[in-house]
Amino acid sequence: MVARFKTLWRSPESRKVLYAILGGKAIGLGIILALLWGLPSYFGHPAQAADAAGAHSECVNPLNTAWTLSAAFLVFFMQAGFLFLEAGFARTRETVNVLLEGIVDTCLCGALFWAFGFAFMFGSGNGFIGLQYFFLHGAPETYGSTGVPIEAFWLFQFAFADTCSTITSGAMVGRTSFAGDLWYSIGVSGFIYPIFGHWAWGPDGWLNNIHPVAFHDFAGSTVVHTIGGFIALAGAMALGPRLGRKFARDGGGIMAGHNMTLAAVGGVILWFGWYGFNPGSTLSAMDMRGIGRVATNTTLAACAGGLSALAFIYVRGKYWDCGITVNGFLSGLVAITCPCYWVSPTGAFILGAIAGVVCCLSVDLFEYLRIDDPVGAVSVHGVCGIWGTLSLGLFATGQYGAPGQYGADTSTTVRGLFYGGGTNQLVAQVIGSFCICGATFVTSLIMMYTLKALGVLRLSAERELAGMDITEHGGPAYPELVPIDAADPRRDLLREPSTALLPLPR
To answer: Which of 327, 378, 332 is nearest to 352 (CA)?
Structure first.
């Protein structure tokens, strides 16, 4: 072999071939070494987190950033679902009001959450309120150790805050003045949601320090949905029912919405947006197993909720109800939002099925109590949000802990009663849910009754009967169905209130 090598070495052509082979191997090895060093650096892996001055504490992770922004866009698209759903369950004469309220509420929420809502919720302060990052001033480059820029995290959380405020409007459809909409939206987006949300999601929120185990709410069954649902309940109570609303115990029933097509499509859009709501709350695209588990659990809970609500109403009334089926799968989605990271697919299906029945029973309860909730917001979001929060203390498998940038932390896991975890987690969930629900409800009652006392919450009787789209917004959503000509007495209400009660428009 040595002799052959010497012979070949004397040949210039053989030496060129050898140099080419060695050079190619050297280049290939260099590329591999560059990839080993560069890829972890690009994706924010801790291996690159050192320089001459020491460790980087704010390393932007492009992959996690893209994932979080994509999820934020999905959650924001849920606003289209809410507009469709609420407009479909409303009557023709209040459709424009529903649409404009949702649009303006989004604009208000963005401004308020930038100015001080985000600071109250995610700034450090004390266990009850954050006191940093007003107008995002002084905020760090990234949010915690996620590698997600603070602006991207803000956008994701703004979409959540907007969802909470939109939930509120659902129970107040058809009789709330637009000025009242503006005032309570300021209270919800600027103060109630971020302050009480800080208790669970803030960096130093007091519910994170419950002993022996902390309160958990992965994507917001309590923080988003129950808060929104109980503000809606306070608003519905302060407003009273719509004029002409006759409840079941008085020989009436739920008023039919004007367009079930809109309502059903809106519900499905919300389901689609939930794939940003729940999986996006990992804040990490590299937690692949966590994202897959959350998405699967979200799907199964929605399917089970829709089927159980459909079956429950059919057994009772012998008809297949579209509206309650839509609210049934939304109830399953609300319920799984809290425990989706910590439960199994079987647990998700069971708790989603229970949520569908809970929604139906809750609608019956509020009908009996003569509380007018046109879209079922209190039942879907408030009541099923409580069920979802408590279900974590029952169905958490004990396999996963807190979500991290690269997957679940299994050093400390979340285990429910049905998986041998005892009652500790269930007690923590009860404490967190009760405290946030109670504080939200009391504060919201004060806000709503104050607005009522000031005369800005409820529309006048004549304007409500004439149609709030006409009297509040200048024209109906369907002019071919509700024409306004020069001879129509309702035209006068476009300028000033009338003293006469007018016939109901179509």
So the answer is: 332
